[in-house]
Amino acid sequence: MVLRRAAEDRTLVDVATRKLREVILSGELRPGEQLVLSELAQELSMSVMPVREAIGRLQAEGLVDQRPHRGARVSPVSTADLEDLYVVRIALETLATREAAAKFAEEDYERLSGVLEEYVRAYEAKDAARGREMHSQFHLGIYELSGSLWLMRTIPALWDAADRYRRLSATLRGTLRERYKEHQHILECCRQRDPEAASAALEEHLRKTMMVVKAEIGDQERVSEDERET
What we know:
Arc Repressor Mutant, subunit A
């Protein structure tokens, strides 16, 4: 049946998108690296068509740069892109946090406290994948309480686009206990139903990540520039 075949094609696109996203985010496919459709299709044991559509999806997420006559490449990381992305994230995520804090309930606090504790346990167990999942659940769990459909259509895409930068910050962002305290502070401000304090706590949290990653990428950019000049 045509419908069944279309569903199978969609499933292959989903699989290709998920696998390519992970190898880009993990750094296995490095920024600037050429994406050759035939090679990727062979690696994924599928035809070129779902891989091409997956690359289109990743381009929409900002992970792939595709230009006429130049093919597709993994998008570069840069201080300019980092700042552009985080300025937009800060604007929208602080808005969502303000809205969420105004209607925060004790049951929300209990649920998100549990997520935060699981985040700590995952990293203590060296399970980074689980830790990232809990980190996402914590922040998006707050934003969902804003009740805004448009914020929740927009923020997850920005969150995914920032994942490469968050991973770069993993070894630069302080101890696990320090990161836990930052998240706990955001949560306590929400519990107090203090929108401005919750928003300010989140903005400080996001700016810290932006600044440590900016310093790291800036050093790399300066090294690359020096190498080009020699």
